[in-house]
Amino acid sequence: MIRAIVLDIEGTTSPTDSVRTDLYGYTEQHLPTWLAENATGAAGSVIAATRELSVEPTADTARIAEILTGWLHSDVKAEPLKAAQGAICAEGFRAGDLHGRFFDDVVPALRAWHAAGHTLYIYSSGSERNQRDWFTYAEQGNLSPLVTDHFDLVNAGPKREPTSYETITARIAVAPRETLFLSDHPDELDAAVTAGWHVVGIHRPGEPNPPRPPHKWVGSFAEVDPAAPTEQ
Fold first, then answer.
1. What are φ and ψ of residue 142, in 5° steps?
2. What does the buried/exposed string (b/e) look like for 5-44 if buried means 16 or more CB atoms within 10 Å of the residue's CB?
3. Residue 93 — very low, low, confident or very high, per pLDDT cuts 50/70/90?
4. With 80 as the cut, is the pLDDT of residue 229 above it?
5. pLDDT at 227 (0 to 100)
6. CB of 191 within 8 A of CB of 160?
7. pLDDT at residue 228, rounded to an integer
8. Mean pLDDT across the chain, nearest whole number?
9. Helix boundaries (H) for the chain
């Protein structure tokens, strides 16, 4: 029996374009000003970590903005970039400039699964802060009550490493055989299976990651039945 359902965001619950255009675009637009205005405060740790990772110990805020923007365009999963994006986009969500966007089939399924007693979790490469805001400030209203907890690259680890899924298992205290993971990325599904989880791949028209055996793939959350046997 599936007790916990863990969901990816980009390409799974939400269009890839909605994340990369909305969040990435907003981050790039506001990054230089945010770094300059918060260099001795909230941006201090981001600046220090970026200098260390880029091996540019004397980089000023303008150069830090260039480095982070380059990582953003290359989709580098760097912790200081995710931290900066989380802080910048938090302001955008609260100002009403940003909203979480979801595929039409997602919200009805989340509500049905939650009502049926399944515990829902999010595991995304986006920062935990951005994840929470994505659901709290969704176009369909506040969806945060449906989600029990959020996991990212900091509190769980890389999404292609089985140990990250083992970390989540320990945190949620649900057996791997009772956990279902939904993602659009085959490598993530591979890692979750190695950790003993059930998985279902999600592939929608226009999304970038093609299906790959041996996983089961569906085109909509409406096709996912947590009560039915799934790959493990």
1. -75, 110
2. bbbbbbbbbbbbebbeebbbebbbebbbebbeebeeeebe
3. very high
4. no
5. 83
6. yes
7. 76
8. 95
9. 16-17, 25-37, 44-54, 61-74, 79-95, 106-115, 128-136, 162-172, 186-194
